Amino acid sequence: MTDLRTELGEAVAAAFAAEGVDPKLARVTPSDRPDLADFQSNGALAAAKALKQNPRELAAKVAARLEGDARLASVEVAGPGFINLKVADAALAARAAEVAGDAAHAGAAGVEAPRKVVIDYAGPNVAKPMHVGHLRSSIIGESLKRVFRFRGDTVWGDAHFGDWGFQMGLLIVAVGDEGRADAFMAEGDGPFPAQSPVTLEDLERLYPAAAARAKEDADFRDRARKATAELQAGRPGYRALWKHFVAVSRTALEREFGALGVTFDLWNGESDADPLMSEMIVHLETRGLLVEDAGARVVHVARPGETRKKKLADGSVIEAPSPPPLLVISSEGSAMYGTTDLATILDRRKSLDPDLILYVVDERQAEHFEQVFRASYLAGYAAEGSLEHLGFGTMNGPDGKPFKTRAGGVLKLHDLISMARDKARERLHEAKLGEDLPEAEFEDIAHKVAVAALKFADLSNSRTTSYIFDLDRFMSFEGKTGPYLLYQAVRIKSLLRKAADQGAEPGPIAIGEPAERDLALTLDAFSQAAAEAYDKRMPHVVAEHAYRLAQSFSKFYAACPVLAAPDAALRGSRLALAKATLDQLVIALDLLGIDTPERM
Ligand code: ARG
């Protein structure tokens, strides 16, 4: 299935080629002047320059070749040599019918060669509270997972659970000191209690205190380091205790992510890469990649000449490699964050053999990924270019600093969602929406509106920009917001229900009115929007399309009576357009991770 813009692009390319012009110049874009044309191609200008021809004359020759094309109502040369294309109503109607008939993809084409893709996102940690970086990662990653799957790839979303490393040692020591886990502190093989000695509340209380204490108390810090090392070396009691920490955290996190409509195919932890660690170290050694550096072992990843100025402790400045070497084994002998990521790449290659791994992680970790990717390529763990870090900006509070909930410090997903839900209820009451519905349904709607508001606010911004958390604005039923889009979708659902009650059915599509033309063109544009969001890994392109579609429908609905259409054929056609719009809007929202309620 091909969209009109692509089809016309091919027709113009053929006409260019027939005039001896490089068809690559034939790019067809939506018209800058929708009052004059639907699409345009500016290629004749560049081509004429290269061929030393008059651009208007060249454009006229190309236009003449397109003259007989039945899909076009008119082909005109404008200005210095633009080619303006107006699509025939019948072609628009045929394309709209195609979109309407495509329940699963609403007219969007898939990729030609599906790939296997891992998307590493959310990255929550055992016991450590989540911050806005984790929230954005979850929202963006979930959307990309859906976009990639929608286009035909095989996709695994992996939470890459932070369940290894120093924070685990901190927790073991903290729990041990409280005297509630004595059974696990014993050396030896157990058996150990099957019941967790800690709850989530315990972990959330103990971790921040332990992390703070480790900063001041050197003895405590050393004990935590030792516990980390022993855990990693496999001390059975620590392992058993650690398993409880992981299980307790994961259950709570899955519930919170679930409320946000974020689910994972894999909950692999950093720990899952551990069994590969020794094999990897040996391999890096044999390849001569692992080198000694002041007691630690590192992989050099900077290429010759890649340096930056670095200030040393004594105040002198040197040219140091940039990016800095990847620290694989610290001087104390522990595996580091980067080591885990490197081993995870190896693990994924052995288990899934992906063509592409996308890391949706805070922009602040850009250098970490640059180091890990380069080391992987050097070691041959991944094909050059098959690892991508997709960074993002921060969600800021009104003070311009990363957003925090009022309770201070910590962003609890649960608190954020319930805050949004309170606001959603308030707004629904203000707008007199959903009030006559049963309590449980009203609650479900409030939840969907809340999630839509949070996600759309995030995803309507380009991934790389930062934005300000403003719940009042996010939750408005007017403007470019999640609630506005849900409201428009629900409005169409109610129109279709009403039609069905009156025995009116969608019928063959005919296009005539300007508002119908605009709606059909917008429906056509979804395929390109999905492709662009995929190619650029930018969900905002889909968000933008959803908003444009809702607006186009609003104009159509205001200008073209549906149930009160002058005759049954026109009514059937308009109902079919409404249905196609709804289906595409619901799909686009779903790609953003947003669920549409039945009514409001
Ligand atoms: N757990 C990490 C953090 O909280 C994020 C993990 C990102 N993914 C990765 N493969 N390193 O910062």
UniProtKB/TrEMBL annotation:
EC main class here is ligase
| InterPro entries, sorted | aa-tRNA-synth_I_CS (IPR001412), Arg-tRNA-ligase (IPR001278), Arg-tRNA-synth_N (IPR005148), Arg-tRNA-synth_N_sf (IPR036695), ArgRS_core (IPR035684), DALR_anticod-bd (IPR008909), Rossmann-like_a/b/a_fold (IPR014729), tRNAsynth_Ia_anticodon-bd (IPR009080)
**Where is this protein localized, as stated in its record?**
Cytoplasm
| Keyword ATP-binding (UniProt) | yes
GO CC, one annotated term: cytoplasm
| Span(s) of short sequence motif 'HIGH' region | 124-134
Recorded GO terms, molecular function?
A: arginine-tRNA ligase activity; ATP binding
SUBUNIT field: Monomer.
Q: What is the protein name given in its UniProt record? A: Arginine--tRNA ligase
